[in-house]
Amino acid sequence: MVLAMLLLGAWLWRRVTGLQGGGGGGLRIEASLAIGSRERLLVVRAGQRRLLLGVSPAGIVRLAALGSEDWPPPPLEGEVSFARLLAARLRREGRE
After folding, report:
1. Which of 7, 42, 61, 69 is deepest in the core (most CB within 10 A)?
2. Domain boundaries in the chain?
3. Which pTM does this prediction carry?
4. What percent of the chain has pLDDT over 70?
């Protein structure tokens, strides 16, 4: 009986919170940036649309609708990716 209640509770929790295994219902968080202890900026893809959202304890606000030319942002001039730096470091350590 207890196991059945746990399974029912887990199923209800997934339904209420919108967590779906594998699908997500066409919503996907493409980027997230913490801008405070409890505030975040999110780029969310909803179907073919991308939205910039501000999330805080007070709620969620749509800040902008991003066009295809807005996302992903172009790399900054002279920007070096973390992956490239890590690969170079690993190559150097392999030689030493």
Report:
1. 42
2. 2-74
3. 0.52
4. 69
